[in-house]
């Protein structure tokens, strides 16, 4: 049954309604992006103010100064945090931006892997999970309340 005041032809009933796990997973993705953005920003601050914390590896294709990686991580961390916060508004543009930011964070952490491998792998995995959750969510099906 369509929501009150809406025309039935506005909704696509060909797909089953999205369950609570999709909505919950989207909230999880937004919260995970906020947390990941904070951690990545802190990782960047550590690299900026105490670059000796990270071990420099030799002969790495994408070898940058640790301070440069710090600024990259700080900026991307702030952007990921803001994108994750915008997803809570439920806007389509926020999900699109969040998917792009999560992909950018995954690529950045993949390139940062020689400096801090375990954390980079965890962040890449969380970013991929967030991308899946944000792509799976369908607001039209989530609004549908009737059962077949």
From TrEMBL:
Coiled-coil segments on the chain, per record: none
InterPro entries attached to this UniProt entry: DUF7144
UniProt keyword list: Membrane, Transmembrane, Transmembrane helix
Name of the protein: DUF7144 domain-containing protein
Residue span(s) of domain DUF7144: 26-138
Transmembrane segments: 21-49, 69-88, 93-112, 118-138
Pfam families per the UniProt record, alphabetical: DUF7144
Organism this protein belongs to: Actinocorallia longicatena
Organism placement in taxonomy: Bacteria, Bacillati, Actinomycetota, Actinomycetes, Streptosporangiales
């Amino acid at each position: 049954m369509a929501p009150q005041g809406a025309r039935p032809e506005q909704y696509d009933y060909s797909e089953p309604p999205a369950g609570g796990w999709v909505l919950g997973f989207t909230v999880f993705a937004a919260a995970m992006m906020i947390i990941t953005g904070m951690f990545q920003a802190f990782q960047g601050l550590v690299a900026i103010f105490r670059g000796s914390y990270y071990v420099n590896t030799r002969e790495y294709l994408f070898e940058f100064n640790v301070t440069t990686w710090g600024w990259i991580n700080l900026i991307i961390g702030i952007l990921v945090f803001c994108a994750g916060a915008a997803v809570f508004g439920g806007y389509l543009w926020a999900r699109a931006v969040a998917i792009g930011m999560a992909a950018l964070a995954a690529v950045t952490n993949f390139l940062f892997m020689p400096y801090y491998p375990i954390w980079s792998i965890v962040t890449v995995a969380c970013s991929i999970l967030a991308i899946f959750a944000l792509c799976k969510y369908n607001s039209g099906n989530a609004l549908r309340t009737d059962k077949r």
